[in-house]
Each structure stands twice: as C-alpha cells, then as structure tokens.
Design brief:
With 172 residues, this protein is of the alpha/beta class. It is 29% helix and 30% strand. The chain contains five helices and seven strands, in the order H-E-H-E-H-E-E-H-E-H-E-E. The chain has helices at residues 5-10, 29-38, 51-63, 104-114, 140-149; strands at 19-23, 43-48, 69-73, 89-95, 115-126, 152-159, 164-171. The mean pLDDT is 95.
Length: 172
Amino acid sequence: MFSDPGANIAKLGVTDGMRIVDFGAGSGFYSIEAAKKVGASGHIYAVDVQKNLLGRLRSMALAQGLKNIEVIWGNVEKIGGSKLKDGIADRAIVSNILFEIGKMDDFALEIKRVVKPGGKVMVVEWDQASHMPKEALVPKAKAETTFEKCGFKLEQSFSAGASHYGLIFART
C-alpha cells in the first residue's frame, strides 16, 4: 500500500487560502488533494521537471474543476530553479522525490527560499519496507540532517503509509 495524500496533508496544518508548493509534483496526487484543502482562495504551485506529467496534472485538475493549481516546469535541484518568488509559500510538499535528488542541500535551500519563515514542509519518502532498491533509499536520518542544517526544525515524524516515512519541518 502506498501513502494516502489526504491523510498526510492533514498533518501539515493546511487551511483555506494557503499557498502551497508541491516540489516534484509528478502525477499530482498531492497537488490535487492540497488544492481541495486550500479552496478557491488558495493556490498550489506544482513544480516538476517532466513536462508530460505536468500536462497530465493540468488536465486532471481541470477535469475535477480545480482552477487553483499552477503547473511550473522547473528544476527543483537548483537554487532558483522552481522559478518561484522568495517566501511565496505557506507550506511545501516533498513526496517520493528525495531518492532522485543529487544535490540534497541545494534542494533543501530552494525549499527554504520559497517557504516563508514559520512555514512548514512535509517530506514523505520511501522507507526500508518499500519495493525500492536499498541503495536508492534516503534514510529518514539523512533527510532530517539535511533539512535541519539548511534552516528547518523537525516538528513531527510519522508513518506516512506502509512503505513511507513522513517528516514535518518548520522553516526557521
């Protein structure tokens, strides 16, 4: 069983009107759930490097009547690569992408750049129980260390599904 985006987003403290960035949005399951939670006055920035996935996400959102998702083609591994303004987001979502990131520090610093002080970041990543090759996994301790040294404070650790760990960080 994979993670449940709705249940995990509930831990992030999302409210009506918030601005949320989904870094590495991929298939968009988290973007769609977040868009429902923030309502028409909120905004979701779905950033990914794969244009075909962003096109699919845009179509899926429109089919569900969600007009508050903006898809952005960008490189989240590079500072400034998301193309978003500094401090634009109340929350950020990082789901199933750490194992693909080469420069974890730059990735965490890009998230810090776009999340306003006091904002929160949810990291959901594959754990040891997953189908992923063990050498590809990013252990929870490494994710914690990376985000903490880049200006975040761990607030919560949780089980994000049978094959995932979850972490909530606050931006300092």
